[in-house]
Write a structure and sequence with these properties.
This protein has 287 residues and is an alpha/beta fold. The chain is built from 9 helices and 15 strands.
Length: 287
């Protein structure tokens, strides 16, 4: 599994067609998507499920979409974060539909695993959280070792660090992409207020120079996070929430990525349904 900062072929999106979620905020979410697509297109192609006639239930393609790996597609099962938000039948078929469209081989695994639950450094390391592995209506606790072994195998990993929890109030049960993200193979940025020592100790097993940074949360008790950014070729798009911490986050990312154009994007519309930029997109890597 490649790191997200490596060269990408495109960004995949799914349009906000779920009227139950988006009808009351139709103008805002449509304006958000127009701006998002326009912004990504400055850096790389955008592929949209709806344009390609691939049906889906909602926008969160990060979690139900395929994992694009160097030799094709890896597919896990999706059940809407522990059967919380039915229906999810169309979402769960999306990896196979994309594989058929692109004529790519698929390796399928029978476990529940969302894309936002795993974070990779492109050098064989992975971060995840315990509730997203074996939480309610996910995978059986007594199958945990078997699950972890399949995750290692499917993504060619050296090891996986399982953190005890994610952000409180996150309806995904604590996805890692709201808590901790790799910004280099030996560097992680985490939400402020969480213990960084587990991540630091983990990285030090593999690298001499290790950095674990922290960024404030836009608001306590809500799953808003600056960690939900996305890489594009030559750029980084960072969620903002119209609060005082936005400038701190943007300054941080520009400092550590001086060669990338760092763009802040107001995510107050999608976050009302619990997700942000990383949650609603999926990178297709260049191979």
């Amino acid at each position: 599994m490649q790191a997200e900062w490596e060269e990408q072929a495109s960004t995949w999106l799914a349009m906000p067609i779920n009227e139950e979620n988006w009808a009351s905020r139709r103008d805002r979410i449509d304006a958000f998507y127009s701006k998002l697509i326009e912004t990504i297109l400055k850096f790389q192609p955008v592929k949209i499920l709806d344009d390609l006639k691939i049906p889906h239930n909602d926008i969160w393609i990060r979690d139900y979409g395929p994992f694009f790996v160097k030799d094709g597609i890896v597919e896990y099962e999706f059940n809407a974060w522990g059967e919380k938000f039915p229906p999810w039948d169309l979402d769960n078929l999306v990896p196979q539909k994309i594989a058929e469209l692109m004529n790519l081989p698929v390796k399928s695994f029978p476990w529940i695993l969302e894309g936002g639950a795993v974070e990779f450094n492109g050098d064989g390391l992975c971060l995840t959280t315990e509730p997203c592995l074996c939480g309610k209506a996910r995978n059986a606790a007594d199958k945990r070792d078997e699950l972890l072994n399949d995750i290692k195998t499917s993504f060619n990993l050296k090891s996986i660090l399982v953190l005890p929890d994610g952000l409180p109030g996150d309806h995904t049960d604590g996805h890692i992409d709201n808590l901790a993200r790799f910004v280099a193979k030996n560097r992680v940025v985490m939400a402020e207020g969480f213990d960084t020592s587990l991540v630091k100790d983990y990285l030090q097993k593999y690298y001499e120079d290790v950095i674990v940074d922290s960024l404030p949360l836009p608001s306590l008790g809500e799953p808003k996070s600056y960690m939900n950014f996305i890489f594009v070729n030559g750029g980084l798009i960072v969620p903002t929430y119209n609060c005082a911490y936005d400038s701190i986050a943007l300054d941080y990312f520009q400092r550590i990525f001086p060669d990338r154009e760092v763009i802040g994007m107001d995510c107050s519309a999608p976050i009302e349904e619990g997700g942000s930029l990383h949650c609603l997109s999926k990178q297709e890597m260049k191979v």
